[in-house]
Amino acid sequence: MSEAKAKVRAPRVNHETKAFWEATAQGKLHVGKCDDCGEHYYYPRALCPFCFSDKTRLALCSGKGEIYSYSVTHGKEPYTIAYVTLEEGPTILTNIVECDFSKLAIGQKVKVVFYDTGEGNAVPMFTAA
Amino acid sequence: MSIRGKAYIGGIFEHPTRVALGKTLPQLHAELAKGALADAGLGKDDVDAYYCAGDAPGMGGIDMVEYMGLNNVRQIDSTETGGSSYVLHVNHAAQAIAAGHCKVALITLAGHPAADAQEGVRTRFGGETPPAAGFESSYRPTIVNMYAMCAQRHMYEYGTTSEQMAWIKVAASHHAQHNPHALRREVVTVEDVVNSPIIASPLHRYDCCVITDGGGAVIVVAPEIMKSLKRPAVKILGAGEAPKHLMNGRVDLTYSGARWSGPKAFEEAGVAHKDIKYASIYDSFTITVLETLEDLGFCEKGQGGKFVSDGNLISGVGKLPFNTDGGGLCSNHPGNRGGMTKVLEAVRQIRGEAHPKVQVPNCDIALAHGTGGLLGSRMGSATVILGNQDS
After folding, report:
1. 10-residue block means of pLDDT along chain B (391 residues)?
2. Per-residue pLDDT tens digits for B182-193
3. Which of B32, B206, B314, B322 has its CA 20 to 30 Å from the CA of residue B277?
4. Beta bridge partners of B240
């Protein structure tokens, strides 16, 4: 991990999100999945936000998606916040990293990369596929 | 209006846990909601009103509505009076039902101080971390970039341009020049806006509102009190409200909660868009105004850029004078909360007390719209339509 990568702010983890964040340390991205209604959702939570079923689990993602929208925050060290629509369906908030921000486009294909927080987990971000 | 006989309690649920080890606070709220709905024999989609107090994490119920996946809420109230809140919520819910604003109101309370003590978590008073925060804060969301992504998507889907959005700031600046209290009184051009520095693409500095202190206040009175007052009557004709969120990951940034709050307000007021002589539209950013105008129905979805162009929002020039005090873009955005000043200028317009240079002639009906939270994630929308005594 580079020095810049270590600067990523660690997420606040709770009982509902512990498994999601532990898996990120192994480079795995999940969304929530309901075994009753079959829907994928994000962020993961204990009761399905579609049908209130408690038969929910984490579903492993391919890590591939496309940019739904983005914004480059200007300043000393510009960074890009974005919504990325995953192959599994949900659109998630993230950062786009390690690419030329001036060439970003909605619809662009991206893939997940993980940034270590130094606290036992890693934050999923995306870069050009 | 009395609530007597106008509302009933249809379902209840008390959580069986006494020490909620391994559960989160939002989770308890959801389990309680599920239990009460099951008791009533109702479904999640039947809920059209949500009430919570300070025990619920996040902003005024918006985070909880998102967490629980409640998509049909059109009345929301997070009045906080400590332990008495939920009794008070029953009253507020009954009032809302009696007034026809909702039919199925959900009230939840949850806490886990015992589990926190056993798990070594410091019990928090007045502000548990919102459930989505763990999935967002690492990405450095700011108010500006969370609105900027809406603009970016709107431009992509509808061909909206920075020049079109700039017209919103231009109109506000034309009004602000006449307001001696406005923070920024200089009149700006479309070129000035698009040549101002980018803060978060595609939003420029002049696409963003000012940051100010101060505030405002409103007194709402009964008709018989109004009669005894010496001020011009401003009648509340109708109102609507709705939270909007990320819909479990089915994100759409091209519209706001005004899509639901607007039609409700128009229906209750019994007026049409052509009747609105003046509109106060929440203007944290130019894109906020653009999406709101579309959602309120002043133009077709996607046509907001065209609608705001060429001075259409400038008093005395365009068809829909807006924010004649200079709005949040030029005059005032006290405490980063601009809904109050939206109501104030609408009242001035109906009283005929706006600045003569921006006063709309015969302003008998006006609209005020507020946006809270983030257009780019979870937000609250509220619309009110006001009229004069004869309206």
Report:
1. 86 92 94 94 95 91 96 94 88 92 94 87 67 94 98 98 98 98 97 98 98 91 91 94 96 97 96 98 98 98 98 98 98 92 96 98 97 95 94 90
2. 999 999 999 999
3. B206
4. B383
Torsion sign (Cα): A58, A59, A61, A67: negative
Residues 6+ apart with CB under 8 A from A68: A82, A83, A84, A85, A91, A106, B153, B251, B253
Give CA–CA dist A40/A56, Å, rounded.
10
CB A43 within 8 A of CB B135: yes
Reduced to 3 states (helix: H, G, I; strand: E, B; else coil), residue B24 is coil
| Partner-chain contact B149 A71, CB within 8 Å | yes
- Structural domains of chain A, with CATH: 12-128 (2.40.50.840)
CATH topology of domain B25-139: Peroxisomal Thiolase; Chain A, domain 1 (3.40.47)
Report the residue of B24, B158, B250, B255 to disrupt the A interface, i.e. the one with the largest count of A CBs within 10 Å: B250
Out of A11, A50, A91, the one facing B138 most closely (by C-beta) is: A11
* pLDDT tens, residue by residue, B225-255: 999 999 999 999 999 999 999 999 999 999 9
Q: Residue A124 forms beta bridges with which residues?
A: A114
pTM listed for this prediction: 0.93
- Cβ-Cβ contacts under 8 Å for B375 (sequence gap 6 or more): B146, B147, B150, B253, B256, B284, B285, B287, B288, B291
The 3-state DSSP class for residue B272 equals: coil
